[in-house]
Design goal:
570 residues; 21% strand
């Protein structure tokens, strides 16, 4: 392997030359305490910055085995180190060093969630960071001196600030790892306790704003206070005893006046499938890992989904056992979103009236009188919600301030009053008895079957122009897959652009194991198993630093939104 001196000699040699000459520095270099790997050199100062890795021998890095001994701890530690590295990048940034991205050193930046990422790795033998560097130039002329000071001044400072255990804040590191481990423990315990979610006493749910995801801390913030009857106490491995509101399996309504915090609670539950950083306020808001937000999403494409449990007898005999659409309506999109989630194993549905199609949710007595069942293709969710639970074991948490008809089908009713939940299950039952809803149940004998679908591999074509594979993610919400745009705005539990990027490549990976006989659910399971086994690196022959782990539910959601997708039924 070449040495650091070789790198500095190279940089001097190419100083002032055309940008292409940077290709000469690709390769690996040995420094005293670490090795540096320039995996990919950018084509020009405006292109995506160059990809770099640094490795430190664990004997020098000195991380105690306890800090990464379980998968849970390992993921949290890698997340923590990514944050430290990122902070050091900002701290030691010495300003732009020329044109375009010149001078920028950057690592994938985590948000409030703790996710497994490909930006950092910790094993018994070494610690590895993956990041990018904007190799500096003035116009297209290499700024060799600037590059030298990036590699020999900034970068070492960043490395010594984040890859060596002795120089880190041990207390903070341990808190990060232990908090995340407690959250994982709690999530695993939910099933045993008969719960689908848990919200700790004292949790802070509201955010600064719709785009600023840190906890709200101006004005009056009401910390979460569980109603007595929902109180559950759990002993966590690190933190010890905590109490909170346990939401049992079954059908739970969240009711209450407008602006009293219903959607904020549901939103926290949606994100409770992930762990959160200490100080987030939602560290112990924990949801079943297979909980899915279901909403209306008009305009999306749908490929042969059996939505017949909800919708039959469409005008002109349109098929609803294999329902396809290029431009779904509110109700058909919500039906498809529900069935597709069930198809890949959803265990809990999270629904907010704010983002639902009214005609999918309810059909009251008067409407039943005016428009007969024969003329209404939709069987509303209210008539399916208990069948889902009793026959398929799928629970629902539903925010609904607008329809008391749901009292008839609820197992638990929580009322938000000025951001404080109250148990009103008894009251709701009394009211349901006293004012009988005269509507007729329309759900029929049973929920109906979930028809498995087999995706056809060549309908997932990643090619564009002359390139056989062209896949890129644009932020959290879009994937460019070959010639197709996959829109994920409505897939609300996707939280990080690096998840989106990984999903884009995972679709291609999934297509390679589609053989015309395996159902979508099976394929998703296999992709997740491969990632669990070989890490996110299985998605790309090159070491990428900006992947984050995603759930099978979101991978399926992306595949289902690919407009070219074709499937056949099992
Ligand atoms: P709803 O869905 O019941 O209409 P929201 O959940 O949208 O109400 O909340 C309304 C507003 O109250 C939001 O701006 C939200 O940030 C704020 N809010 C929610 N929960 C709390 C809380 N616990 N303390 C302070 N403000 C809150
Ligand atoms: Mg709301």
């Amino acid at each position: 392997m070449k040495s650091g001196d070789d790198l500095s000699a190279q940089l001097r040699r190419i100083d002032g030359k055309g940008y292409k000459a940077y290709n000469d520095i690709q390769g690996s270099y040995n420094f005293r305490d670490y090795s540096l790997h320039l995996d990919h050199v950018q084509a020009d100062p405006f292109a995506a910055p160059s990809r770099v890795r640094v490795q430190v021998d664990q004997r020098k890095a000195g991380f105690p085995a306890s800090s990464y001994r379980s998968k849970s701890r390992e993921i949290a530690l890698r997340d923590y180190l990514t944050r430290e590295f990122s902070q050091a990048c900002r701290k030691y940034f010495r300003g732009n060093r020329g044109t375009g991205n010149s001078g920028v050193i950057c690592i994938d930046l985590p948000g409030q969630e703790i996710l497994e990422r490909s930006s950092f790795f910790v094993t018994d033998s070494q610690v590895e960071a993956r990041f990018t560097m904007g190799l500096p130039a003035y116009g297209r002329r290499i700024a060799g001196k600037q590059a030298e000071s990036m590699f020999f001044e900034e970068l070492p400072r960043i490395i010594y600030a984040s890859l060596f255990f002795k120089d880190l804040d041990h207390e903070e590191l341990v808190r990060h790892v232990e908090t995340s481990e407690d959250a994982d423990y709690l999530r695993e315990k939910l099933a045993e306790l008969g719960l689908v979610a848990f919200v700790a006493q004292g949790a802070v749910l509201p955010r600064e704003s719709g785009i600023e995801l840190r906890p709200l801390n101006k004005g009056r913030v009401v910390a979460f206070e569980p109603p007595e009857s929902f109180n559950v106490e759990i002993e966590l491995p690190n933190r010890g005893k905590i109490t909170g509101m346990g939401i049992p399996r079954g059908v739970t309504l969240i009711v209450g006046g407008g602006y009293h915090g219903k959607s904020t609670l549901l939103h926290a539950l949606e994100l409770g499938v992930y762990n959160h950083v200490p100080g987030d306020g939602r560290e112990f808001v924990i949801t079943d890992p297979l909980a899915v937000k279901i909403r209306a999403e008009d305009g999306r494409s749908i490929s042969k989904v059996d939505i017949s449990p909800f919708i039959t007898n469409l005008p002109f005999g349109k098929d609803t056992v294999g329902f396809s659409s290029e431009d779904a309506s509110g109700s058909t999109s919500q039906a498809a979103n529900t069935i597709e989630a069930l198809e890949v194993g959803a265990q809990v549905l999270l629904i907010d009236e704010d983002t639902s199609a009214t005609n999918f949710m309810i059909r009251d007595h008067r409407m039943q009188e005016l428009v007969s069942k024969e003329q209404e293709p939709i069987t509303p969710f209210i008539d399916k919600i208990q069948q889902l639970y009793k026959e398929k074991g799928v629970s629902t948490i539903l925010v609904i301030g607008g329809s008391g008809d749901y009292f008839d089908v609820a197992d638990h009713v929580i009322c938000m009053v000025e951001y404080r939940p109250q148990d009103v299950t008894g009251r709701a039952r009394e009211i349901a008895e006293k004012y009988r809803a005269e509507r007729k149940a329309e759900g029929g004998e049973g929920f109906g079957d979930i028809t498995a679908r087999i995706p056809i591999a060549d309908s997932l074509d990643p090619s564009r122009g002359r390139r056989p594979v062209k896949i890129s993610a644009k932020g959290r919400e879009t994937i460019l897959f070959g010639r197709h745009l996959i829109e994920l705005q409505a897939v609300e539990q996707l939280v990080d652009p690096s998840q989106t990027k990984a999903i884009g490549d995972a679709i291609h990976f999934a297509a390679k194991i589609m053989d015309g006989s395996r159902a979508l659910a099976e394929i998703i399971t296999e992709v997740l198993a491969e990632i669990a086994e070989g890490g996110l690196d299985v998605l790309n022959p090159r070491p990428m630093g900006d992947y984050a782990v995603f759930r099978g539910l979101e991978l399926a959601a992306a595949i289902n939104r690919l407009r070219s997708l074709r499937v056949k039924h099992v």
